[in-house]
Design a protein that fits this description.
Layout: H1 2-65, E1 79-80, E2 83-85, E3 142-147, E4 158-163, H2 168-176, E5 192-193, E6 220-225, E7 229-237
Antiparallel strand pairs: 1-2, 3-4, 3-5, 4-7, 6-7
Length: about 240
Amino acid sequence: MKNQSGNVLFLILIAVALFAALSYAVTQSSRGGGGNANEEVFRTEIARIDSFQASMRAALTRMRVIGSVDPENIDFRAYQGTTGDVWYRNNALPMRSTNSNCGDDTCRVFHTNGGGVIPIILDEAVVGEPFTASNTARLRHGVVDASRVAGFGSDAHDIIVQFFRIQDDFCEAFNEQRGISGIPADDRGDYIGIGGSFSFVDNGAFGYGDEATELAGQDSFCVNSVDEGNTIVLVLLER
């Protein structure tokens, strides 16, 4: 009888130990799964941004070489196919009005009959708090500007696209893939929005890369700007 009682107690102790081990394994799996899921979102989003930049650069080269479209005549209104807009301001107006120098669809980089590039909106998991001003870009939407990035071409302004209010951890992950440590700080500096009756103001003033010198020659990076916070910058066309 004593042997039977001892065996039962031993089995109970084994069952308790197995249950505790199983609970621990499930808890650790849940914690690790969250981190892995976040990393997967980051990898996917970085790949999507890189693909978008490559498509933009290829389209702009094609439009200039084959279509003989001058940079100041390129329209960056973010069409979806042939009509409608994708990138907006907080006041529900399209981000950057149509470039009046562009006379037909062939000089519209996002139009099906032009560059044919599909604009992207960033995943909500990689951005932070939105701007409150009505005329600024909506969270996750892109903004195309002319600004000089150090290490490219001449003193002329380059064409860049920016995504504002990026979370710290994604900003760091984005830079890590480019061999950039942390989040460099660099004032946005001199820039002009491409829209209306557009013309470049090539005054030699820097936009990015003069303060954070590690950004010089980088065609994509995430930087902490004074006014916009963490900002992803993609160089689309060097001048």
